[in-house]
Amino acid sequence: MAILAMIPLAASLSQYQSNGLSSYGLLNTSTLPLFLIDNPLPCGVPWGNTQPGGNPPHTGVVRRYKWKISRSTKAPDGVEKSLILINDQFPGPLVEANWGDTIEVEVTNAIQSTAEGVTIHWHGQPQKENPWYDGVPAVTQCPIAPGSTFTYRFRAESFGSGWYHSHVSWQYADGLFGPMAIQLPYDVDLGPVILSDYIYTSYYEYFSKDLALPLVFPTVSNNLINGKGTTSCSSITTEQMYTRRSLAKFAFQKGKVHRLRLIKNGSSGTQKFSIDGHSMTVIAQDYVPVQPYTTNVVTLGLGQRADVLINATGSADGSYWMRSDLDVSCMQLATVKLPCTCVRFTTLKQTHRRKQPLLVIHGIVTIA
């Protein structure tokens, strides 16, 4: 396929230069457990005898996170840009808890150069008990001023896959977002697969054109999976610096059912997700379990999530692309050609933090 020639197998940038301290898309990225076990396990599970569909349990467990938000220059697809980062990571760190746990996040705004206020919205969590922690500026709270700290504290009322993001202006278009995983048990959990369009200008410059007259539809610069991608040199201006990057990497175990938590969190457009040679069973959308159905393509609009199951049935020596195509029908892309964002798969045994064997190789997933 022509796209193979567009994707380098080796990267000239370090992981820190492209994604900071984030480990998403690396061979040693951890899979997620059936549930977190560093807590009491009544009836063998964190939520005791509480059944899904009922009111969330009170587990008595608090999951604490400490975040520092700042600006830093990174190059997720090889093109440098000033991003808003949490703990110097792009995308932001995973918020992980069991259903019914209390999540506590201490957020310090350390943005200095642009003096921006921030808030964090926990997308899809109802906040029935704590509406003041919903993160909507001027509605549920004032923005966290530069140099100030604010602590969010709420219970994980919905289980499944979600994400968080800034609700101040369009800051999430500059990188202020990350995944959430609220656990109920499922086979091999590969964790978040973050699908995001990407823009090279600042969010303010990008969306000020969208709000001006005459109406101009937004034009994105690229498409990323787990904060990684490559770009065509033809789309780079002389003022921009580009260094080639590698793609995200995933690992399948042959014969196992794998759960992927698809998250569409970009600034615009619709993503169409697929994996060559494999169908997907959708089991949940936006924290809501659904009647399972099988499909070859999952379509996600802005902010949507889907939990899918994939049975690794491919051949042991095969290679498969993971793709997320950005629907550009509502964008002005007459002069900008977006490459298909994809990931190759192959297999090699590797050890996981919870002693689950993985099968991986650089840039490819094969199944053994």
From TrEMBL:
It comes from Monilinia fructigena. Residues 71-183, 193-325 form the Plastocyanin-like domain. This is Plastocyanin-like domain-containing protein. Pfam families: Cu-oxidase (PF00394), Cu-oxidase_3 (PF07732). Keywords: Copper. InterPro entries: Cu-oxidase-like_N, Cu-oxidase_2nd, Cu-oxidase_fam, Cupredoxin. The keyword Ribosomal protein does not apply. Transmembrane segments: none annotated. Signal peptide: none annotated. Belongs to the multicopper oxidase family. GO terms for molecular function: copper ion binding; oxidoreductase activity. Gene3D superfamilies: Cupredoxins - blue copper proteins. It comes from the Eukaryota.
